[in-house]
Structures are given as C-alpha cells and as structure tokens.
C-alpha cells in the first residue's frame, strides 16, 4: 500500500508540475515581445494583467470608446514583421493604413471645419444644432458619448477639447456599432453597444490582450462586414431653411451614397452583390496574423485592408502638407500610400470610357463617347461639391486646336461654366458647351446655392448612376435624377432598357473647311472641390475659413484624371471652304502620276512643308519655290504653304 500511495503521490506531483509548466508557457507566450525583448506595455499594465486571472476587463467607465492609439499597440506596426504582413512581406498594419485617410482625419479636415464655420456664420442662431449634426459623423465617438451622458449638443469647441472626438472616424466608430436597426439609421444616428465589446469578423477571437490593456472584449459578429455599417453617415437628410433662416418644413437629401448602393446591382439583393467594404476595404485572401507581439497566434483569412480609400486626393495632399499645424502624427510615406491607392481606385474601379468615330458629313465629323460607371453608387457620389467633367480636344496635324471643350483655366475653373451651372448634354457641338456630371442645389427662391442648410431641392443631378439603377426603385425618392438627364434616352439606358449605368454622349465637330489629319482626345477628370464651392465661403471670415484659405494658397488642387481614350491620325475632308486665310492657290496635277506637283499663286511663296499621312515631316523648302518632287514614294501627303499674306494647307496624292 505504501508503494502504491507513493506512486500515486508521484503521479500527482508530475501532473501538477506539467500543469504548472504548461500554464507558465501559455502565460509567457502572452507576453508581448519587441525587438529589444522588453514588454510592449508598461510594467504597471503588465502587473494588472497578471493580477487579473479571470481576464475580465478592468474597463475605465469614463471612456465608452477606445482611441486608435490604444488599439495601435497590437494592430500597429510589428517590428518583428510577423503580424499584419502579406505574403510578399509588405506591412499592411491597420493603424498606419487608417491614419492617413479622410476617415481618420475627419475631425481635423480643414475644409470641413471651414464649411461648418461658414454655415454657422450664415445662420448663427442654428450654431448648436448645426455643429451637433456635423460632429455626429465627423467626430462620432465624442458626439455619441456626450449625448449618451445627457448633453443636448456636441459642438466644435467640445470636440476640440475631447481626444476621442478628435480621433475622427476611429476604430470604435465602426467596430462598436450594434447590429440593431443597422441599415435603417441615417443622418448621423447610430446604435452603439456600450457593454464594452468590439465587434470583429473572426470567430473565437483571442481576447486576453484587448480585455486587459484596452478594456474591451472582442466578439465575432457578421454584421461588421455589412454595408449597413456605412449607412448612418453616408445617407444624410437635412432640414431646409429659407434665406432668413426660417425652416421651410421640407427636408433635403444632401447625400445618399448608401441608398444609391441599394438602388443598384451591387446591393445584397442585386445581380452582382458587393458590399461597400469590398471596394473601400479590399480583402486579401492571404493568411494574416492580425495582432502584433504574440508569436503563437494563428493567422486569419480573409484580411480587410483598412485603406478606407475614397476619391479626394487634393484634400489628402493638403492635410499631409499641413499635418504639423493640424496636429497629425502620420508619416508622409503612409500619406503617399493612401494617395496611390486612391488614384488606383479612381482609375481602375470607377469608370470605363470608349471613344468611337461617328459620321463625316459635309463640314463636320461626329464622335460618340460612352461612359460606364463601375462603382456601386453614383459617380461621383457623397458630398455635393464633387463633380466629373469631360475634356474633349481635337487638334490638326500641325498641332493647332480645331475644337476644345471642358479645358480648365489656371485657377481650375471651367470658364463660363462655374458662374452659372451647365445643363446636361446629349450632344455637344459648340466649344461653349461642356459635359459636367454633378449635383446642383437650389434654394427656396430657385437660385443655385452652396449653402447646405439653404438647399431646398436639386435642380440638376446627372451623376452617372450605378449599374442596375432604376427610377421605380423604392429608394428613388432619395436618389433622384434631376434636369435634362432624366429625358436623355441614352442616359442610364441601353437598348431601351433602364439600368445600364452609362451615358452615351455625342460630339459634332465643325471642320471649318479643314482637310487633313486630326487627333481626338477625350479625358474624364474628377474634381472634389470646384472653385464655385469656395466663392461664397471666402466672402465671409472666421478663423477656420482663414486657415483653410491660407492652406489652399499653396495646395495642389488639380483635378484627377480618371480615364481617357483617343483616336489619332484620322483623315477628315471638308466639303466647304476653309475659314482661315487662303489665297488663290492651285496645285496641279493632283493626283500626280509621277510625284511632281506645281504650285500656281498670285502671292510670293515663303516656305513649303510636306507631311506624310502620319504627320511626319518629309520635306521642307524655304524661299520661292513652285515645284514639289515626291517621286521617291507614292502616297497621300499634306502640304503647308506659307505665303506673304497667310498660310494654306492642302492635300495631294501621288498615285
């Protein structure tokens, strides 16, 4: 019996030792590791972690949301390059990718601050309500915390003294949204779960670090991948006021990106469902370790890049160039990465264009330009200042411009089109016309306005609808087409079917008697902040407006080229007389059978230049000459004859 009892005690001792060793290994595997082998968190934090054997969160009841800085401890850059690294070895950590986005800097965005100030100056009695509404989306965590604690308002001044407010659209703004009524809350309204949870896309999350160091509990929930996460701020209805600041009783749809997505093939019930996140937070199928400092963690897949890319490249550049003044710590390299990814989204996933030759008729030639929206919402979408325009230029073989439409001046204005809005066109035949896809607002008096609170209804909305968009959809009342586009048979229609997401625009170019080669270029530009949207704001003064105006003076506000198509070396032949200087000139024989051509004119010939069909110079003669020898090669040629009273251009053929 003694031997048996001794053996049992020995086995129990071995079991206790094994459990102790296993527990020690598990415990120390949780110790965050850095390159210098020191704890990532402070000694006090680690002591608290050891004391907290039940791993229940020591949550600070003062803070309902974590700051992004708190989350960066595990979801920021991993010096060991173990976590948040793709299969090619690229760092893709959450914090750095987020930190240079418009979402991260939404509370510090100098244009937004200036525009809020502008609206308040117009209607100062509405200051508290205006600022509270604006902060609901630009500083949602601070806004929600204040209102939950009983405040009626959350102002810009409140935000400036609130670190969680200045965090912009931070981690908790999305990851703490409740699934309750998720897709039916708009205009900054949102349900947040205040029980200390952080919703994520992965099952069985490793909860210990987040419980201990941030005070929140990670919980799996499918709704974090839903487009409904974006609904509350990307559908905004405002209460309209007249020019005296009195409410009209009407509401106005300032932006409805989420509803545009619902009215498309990309919606969950559409033919090709894609969530907002699929474009703006693209997924990697790589196996990614999602938390730094814990070497035992298993990788997860798929992994959502927190690029949160949109389209506003000029504003990202302006924020980068003024980041010290705006108290933004993000590195320039991360700004450059965000700019690069934004450009890629605009040029690869936004728009397709196709330029084709129409017909040549008498003294004109026509072209058809088809633009097809590839986005899951209108293009452009969101804040109503944003517009897309077409630059269409036709040049002659010698480089002179034959026709131009939509060419910006040095102030990034479309001359003649920024003072009064340009209507939608289905055909352009005059240089004073330009196709601009935009949302134009008018006030209660029917005048165009950029004062958002005074916006009463849309007078023009020809922004390209997404594929599948229809005028009989249940949300069409918030996504309406306004103006001439509504009656354009080629707008959002193909083969008499609605929902193409495209527009077919025709150009008829007068040749003015020109005969020769032409190059045709169609370029589509995205402009986030046209000058029209600054004019009325700069007529008043505030600290925020003056700050933005100063920053703007040195900013690169050039529009972004989204797409282009060209037709080069197209031969056109007018049947009418040219309207540029032409003297009495005859060239014979034409065609020529031996390559010799003779020129007869009543003026002195100063020079002759000869070009082949591709516009390449093949001969140049200075002084008085009346014969051209092209006997070396048969073909079509163009000659430019400079005379004492002008220059004429002709086509000749050696056959």
Description:
With 655 residues, this protein is an alpha+beta fold. It has four domains: 2-44, no CATH class; 51-345, no CATH class; 350-573, no CATH class; 585-654, Immunoglobulin-like, CATH 2.60.40.1220. It is 24% helix and 26% strand. The strands form eight sheets. Strands 7, 8, 11, 15 and 16 form a five-stranded mixed sheet that branches. α6 (127-138) crosses α7. Mean pLDDT is 88; it is low at 13-61 and 579-583.
Radius of gyration: 33 Å
Q: What is the mean predicted local confidence, pLDDT?
A: 88
> Helix fraction?
10-25%
Number of helices: 17
Gross morphology is elongated
Q: Enumerate the spans where pLDDT stays under 50 for 5 or more consecutive residues.
A: 13-61, 579-583
> What's the story with the biggest beta sheet?
5 strands, mixed
Beta-strand residue percentage? 25-35%
Number of strands: 25
- Decide which structural class fits the backbone: alpha+beta
Domain count, please report it. 4
Could you tell me how far the N terminus lies from the C terminus, measured between alpha carbons in angstroms?
Answer: 122 Å
């Amino acid at each position: 019996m003694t031997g048996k009892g001794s053996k049992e005690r020995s086995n129990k001792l071995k079991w206790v030792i094994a459990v102790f060793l296993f527990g020690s290994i598990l415990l120390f595997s949780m110790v965050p590791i850095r390159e210098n082998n020191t704890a990532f968190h402070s000694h006090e934090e680690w002591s608290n972690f050891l004391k907290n054997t039940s791993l229940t969160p020591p949550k600070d009841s003062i803070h309902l949301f974590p700051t992004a800085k708190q989350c960066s401890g595990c979801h920021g850059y991993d010096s060991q390059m173990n976590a948040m690294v793709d299969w090619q070895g690229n760092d893709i950590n959450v914090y750095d990718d987020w930190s240079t986005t418009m979402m991260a800097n939404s509370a510090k965005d100098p244009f937004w601050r200036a525009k809020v100030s502008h609206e308040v100056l117009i209607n100062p009695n509405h200051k508290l309500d205006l600022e509270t509404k604006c902060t609901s989306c630009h500083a949602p965590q601070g806004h929600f915390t204040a209102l939950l604690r009983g405040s009626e308002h959350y102002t810009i001044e409140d935000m400036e003294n609130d670190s969680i407010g200045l965090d912009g659209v931070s981690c908790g703004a999305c990851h703490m949204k409740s699934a309750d009524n998720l897709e039916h809350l708009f205009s900054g309204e949102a349900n947040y779960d205040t029980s200390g949870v952080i919703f994520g896309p992965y099952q069985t999350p490793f909860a210990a670090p987040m419980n201990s160091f941030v005070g929140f509990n990670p919980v799996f929930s499918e709704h974090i991948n839903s487009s409904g996460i974006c609904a509350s701020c990307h559908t905004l209805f405002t209460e309209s006021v007249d020019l005296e600041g009195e409410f009209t009783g009407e509401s106005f749809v300032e932006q409805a990106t989420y509803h545009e997505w619902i009215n498309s093939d990309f919606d969950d019930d559409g033919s090709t469902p894609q969530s907002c996140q699929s474009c703006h937070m693209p997924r990697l199928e790589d196996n990614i370790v999602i938390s730094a400092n814990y070497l035992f963690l298993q990788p997860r897949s798929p992994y959502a890049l927190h690029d949160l890319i949109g389209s506003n490249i000029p504003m990202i550049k302006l924020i980068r160039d003024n980041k010290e003044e705006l108290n933004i710590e993000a590195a320039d390299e991360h700004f450059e990465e965000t700019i690069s990814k934004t450009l890629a989204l605009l040029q690869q996933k936004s728009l397709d264009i196709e330029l084709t030759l129409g017909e040549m008729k008498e003294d004109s030639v026509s072209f058809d330009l088809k633009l097809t929206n590839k986005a899951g919402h209108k293009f452009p979408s969101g804040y109503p200042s944003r517009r897309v325009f077409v630059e269409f230029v036709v040049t002659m073989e010698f480089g002179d411009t034959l026709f131009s439409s939509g060419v910006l001046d040095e102030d990034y204005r479309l001359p003649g089109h920024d003072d009064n809005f340009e209507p939608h066109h289905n055909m352009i035949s005059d240089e004073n016309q330009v196709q601009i896809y935009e949302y134009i607002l008018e006030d209660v008096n029917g005048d165009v306005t950029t004062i958002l609170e005074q916006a009463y209804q849309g007078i023009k909305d020809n922004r390209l609808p997404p594929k599948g968009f229809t005028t009989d959809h249940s949300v069409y009342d918030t996504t309406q087409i306004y103006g001439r586009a509504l009656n354009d048979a080629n707008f959002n229609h193909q083969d008499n079917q609605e929902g193409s997401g495209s527009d077919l625009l025709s150009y008829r170019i007068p040749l003015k008697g020109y005969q020769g080669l032409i190059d045709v270029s169609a370029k589509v530009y995205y402009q986030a902040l046209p000058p029209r949207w600054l004019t009325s704001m700069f007529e008043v003064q505030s600290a925020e407006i003056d700050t933005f105006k100063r920053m703007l003076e040195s900013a690169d506000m050039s529009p972004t080229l989204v797409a282009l198509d060209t037709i080069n070396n197209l031969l056109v032949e007018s049947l009418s007389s040219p309207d540029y200087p032409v003297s009495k000139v005859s060239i014979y024989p034409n065609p020529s059978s031996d390559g010799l051509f003779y020129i007869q004119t009543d003026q002195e010939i100063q020079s002759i230049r000869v070009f082949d069909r591709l516009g390449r110079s093949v001969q140049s003669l200075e002084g008085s000459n009346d014969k051209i020898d092209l006997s070396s090669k048969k073909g079509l040629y163009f000659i430019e004859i400079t005379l004492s009273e002008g220059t004429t251009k002709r086509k000749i053929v050696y056959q």
